[in-house]
Amino acid sequence: MIPEHQLRQIALFDELDSAELLRLGAVMQERRVPKGSYIVYEGDPGPSMMFLFEGKAKVNLVSNEGKEIVLAMYEPGDFFGEISVLTGEDRSANVVALSDCKLFALPGEEFKMHISGENGLAACVMKQMALRLRASSAKIGDLVLFDVYRRVARTLKSLARPKTVDGEERLVIEERPTHQELANIVGTSREMVTRALKGLEEDECIFVDNKQIEFRKLPL
User: Fold this and answer.
1) Which of 209, 220, 218, 219 is nearest to 165 (CA)?
2) Which helix (H) or strand (E) is 154 found in, with range?
3) 201 CB contacts (<8 Å, ≥6 apart)?
């Protein structure tokens, strides 16, 4: 049984009423995954949706040669696994814990039974899937239309979160990814990312302070 006050921290559940959350919480299970472990593997059966309550995770694909491509980064409040649950197909990518994670698992059969009688959750999932499709389309467009310098800038903006600094709200990455992690997200080499970051800093698009990056503007 997952209590309502914890489910309220999952963005997908923002618009659901207490009665619907109570029914969902009754059929969900808590799961803990240590840092560095795989939460799901590409190609495995996908019997449940997963909701990230604590920690961070990444979605990736790894080639036979060991090259990694990062498709998305997840933070507390995010969810994944809906495609496998809806289609009945195997997982399309890996999800790896970047820190110790606490998750809530909603079995696929329970999800299907729930949405057959409740419209709230189904509508929320459809909305979020549409937003993710838009984000994927934007990322594909970036790969086609922009050079590495601009792709790195747009990636940093997507990773940044609002934070009040000296009385002003700014976009900040609290723990910046390594150059290799950025390269895996952007789809380029670590050396190219290093050059791009240096250029963005020189052009005052970003300000780097130890492990923190303050995002200031997109390059022209």
Assistant:
1) 209
2) helix 148-159
3) 207, 208
Residues 35 and 58: beta-carbon distance below 8 Å: no
Q: What are the E-state strand segments in 67-160?
A: 68-74, 79-80, 94-97, 101-107
Residue 62 has phi, psi (to 5 degrees) of: -125, 125
Query: 41 in helix, strand or coil?
Result: coil
| Dihedral over Cα of 39, 2, 129, 181: its sign | negative
Query: Which secondary-structure segment (H or E) carries 199?
Result: helix 190-202
DSSP state of 125: H
User: Between β-strands 161-165 and 168-173, what pairing exists: parallel, antiparallel or unpaired?
Assistant: antiparallel
Q: How far is CA 78 from CA 64, 93, 197, in A?
A: 29, 16, 28
**What one-letter code names the amino acid at 7?**
L
Report the relative pairing of strands 38-40 and 94-97 from DSSP bridges.
antiparallel
List the one residue out of 130, 168, 128, 115 whose CA is nearest residue 12: 128
pLDDT, average across residues 93-97: 96
Average pLDDT rounded to a whole number, residues 174-196 = 91
Question: What is the Cα–Cα distance from 128 to 49, expressed in whole angstroms?
Answer: 14
First vs last C-alpha separation in the chain: 51
Cα 4 to chain centroid distance, Å, stands at 23
pLDDT 10s digits, 143-163: 666 899 999 999 999 999 998
